[in-house]
Amino acid sequence: MTTLEFKIEINAPKEKVWDVLWNEETYKQWVSVFCEGSYAISDWKEGSKIHFLSPNGDGMNSIIYKKIDKEYIAFKHLGEIKNFKEMPVDDATQEWSGAMETYRLIENNGLTVLEAKMDSVEKYVDYFKTTLPKALDLVKKLSEVK
């Protein structure tokens, strides 16, 4: 597995960037880069389950591994969801089960650096290298709106 790292500077306070990342309405906007209509179901508390879903009910079953409000969140991806149901871990899923995805916000004088890290199996590395920066660009645009 490869850990991909991305950074983007955003001209907004970290509280605004955090809200754009995890507020239901704006979350749906920036994750649409990965799959139109994607959304998440969770209570957004550390240790809780989170389901990342596409409109057809496919996605990932994960947990919120660590959360520091308005600073850091880490997701641990556990398995697949098919037709809104968690699937047992099979050989293909075992290859990436336990992968981490993290977001860190560091603010300095009203400028926020958003750092995103994602573990990926080799076959998806190029996809995420192209797509995640587009998603972060959208977070930047949404955060910089006055």
Summarize this, please?
This protein is 30% helix and 41% strand. It contains four helices and eight strands; from the N terminus they run E-H-H-E-E-E-E-E-H-E-E-H. Helix 1 crosses helix 2, helix 1 (14-22) crosses helix 4 (122-144) and helix 2 (24-31) crosses helix 4 (122-144).
Structural descriptors:
Alpha-D-Glucose-1,6-Bisphosphate, Chain A, domain 4; globular; eight-stranded antiparallel β-sheet; 146 residues; alpha+beta
**What is the architecture at the second tier of CATH?**
2-Layer Sandwich
Radius of gyration: 15 Å
How many domain regions?
Answer: 1
Shape: globular
Largest beta-sheet details? 8 strands, antiparallel
Order of helical and strand elements: EHHEEEEEHEEH
Q: Total helix count?
A: 4
Number of strands: 8
Low-confidence stretches: none
Q: Span between N and C termini?
A: 39 Å
What would the average pLDDT be, to the nearest integer? 95
- Full CATH superfamily name: START domain
CATH topology: Alpha-D-Glucose-1,6-Bisphosphate, Chain A, domain 4
Strand content: 35-45%
Q: Mind telling me the CATH class?
A: Alpha Beta
Helical content band = 25-40%
- Summing up helix and strand content along with how strands pair, one would put the structural category as alpha+beta
Pfam families: AHSA1
Family: Belongs to the AHA1 family.
Domain Activator of Hsp90 ATPase homologue 1/2-like C-terminal: 11-118
Protein name: SRPBCC domain-containing protein
